[in-house]
Inverse folding.
């Protein structure tokens, strides 16, 4: 049986180094201006997350686990070689890579990631929710419809969730970088669209004021190794990849420690049920960072 890395809640490779003092942690903090920008707009882009060696290592692991014959394939919560209904518009999307390979496991404990997550969640302790891989191949990479992440996570509460989208290739308008509607995290929860459906499907549920804002998206082009953090209610999506290069990224979803289950059903495929009202914790939802002890 392939080793399941979800049993290990610490770094297992030398890809990242865990700081040992408050002074060392200071180097990974976001500025007050960055935190303020996030709170105003609902997203923050261009946050340095990986160096070249880390990018190369993660790309290699992604190539390996994209093969359905990989020996750890059964550990994915979800695996879609193409989540789009159109065979000519391809969106590779998978959840659970952290259980399979060392680097994709260790990105959860990247000091840059956990420190920024804590700050953007209000200087709270950070607990892991789940990861994702998105891969848009050249020329035929499909869209990700406009949506709010929390619309897929209503089985947990309260709304105290955060997403980190990290590029493994330069993300441009041509290859389908993320787009955001500034301030949309103040709109409340909208109906849930089909993730690989029509790009602008959510527009049917917007009022006239929101529709005007929807016509002015902010394109978040970033370099490989840079991340975008966004609030779980911020409206976002991404266009097709019409370029000659791939657009690969991994996503880390977290929440403030203390979020509870709001459903007596599996929260992720193959993960034991967390009974409604019980705290989200344990093997599959590890605590990543506690600011008070750093």
């Amino acid at each position: 049986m392939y080793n399941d890395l979800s049993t290990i809640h610490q770094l297992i490779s030398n890809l990242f180094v865990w700081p040992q003092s408050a002074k060392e942690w200071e180097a990974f903090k976001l500025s007050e201006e960055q935190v303020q920008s996030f709170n105003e707009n609902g997203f923050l882009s261009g946050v340095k997350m990986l160096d070249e060696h880390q990018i190369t290592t993660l790309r290699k692991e992604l190539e390996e686990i994209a093969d359905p014959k990989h020996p750890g394939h059964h550990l994915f919560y979800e695996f879609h070689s193409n989540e789009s209904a159109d065979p000519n518009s391809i969106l590779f999307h998978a959840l659970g890579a952290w259980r399979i390979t060392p680097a994709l496991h260790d990105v959860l404990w990247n000091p840059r990631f956990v420190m920024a997550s804590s700050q953007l969640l209000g200087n709270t302790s950070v607990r892991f929710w789940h990861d994702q891989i998105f891969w848009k191949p050249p020329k035929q990479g499909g869209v990700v419809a406009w949506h709010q992440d929390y619309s897929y996570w209503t089985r947990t509460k309260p709304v105290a969730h955060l997403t980190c989208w990290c590029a493994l290739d330069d993300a441009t308008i041509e290859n389908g970088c993320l787009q955001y509607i500034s301030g949309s995290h103040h709109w409340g929860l909208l109906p849930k669209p089909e993730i690989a459906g029509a790009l602008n499907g959510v527009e049917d549920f917007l009022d006239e004021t929101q529709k005007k804002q929807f016509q002015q998206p902010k394109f978040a082009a970033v370099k490989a190794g840079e991340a975008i953090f966004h609030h779980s209610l911020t409206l976002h999506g991404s266009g097709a990849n019409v370029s000659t290069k791939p657009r690969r990224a991994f996503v880390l979803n977290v929440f403030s420690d203390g979020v509870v289950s709001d459903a007596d059903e599996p929260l992720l495929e193959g993960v034991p049920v967390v009974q409604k009202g019980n705290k989200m914790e344990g093997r599959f939802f590890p605590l990543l960072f506690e600011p008070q002890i750093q």
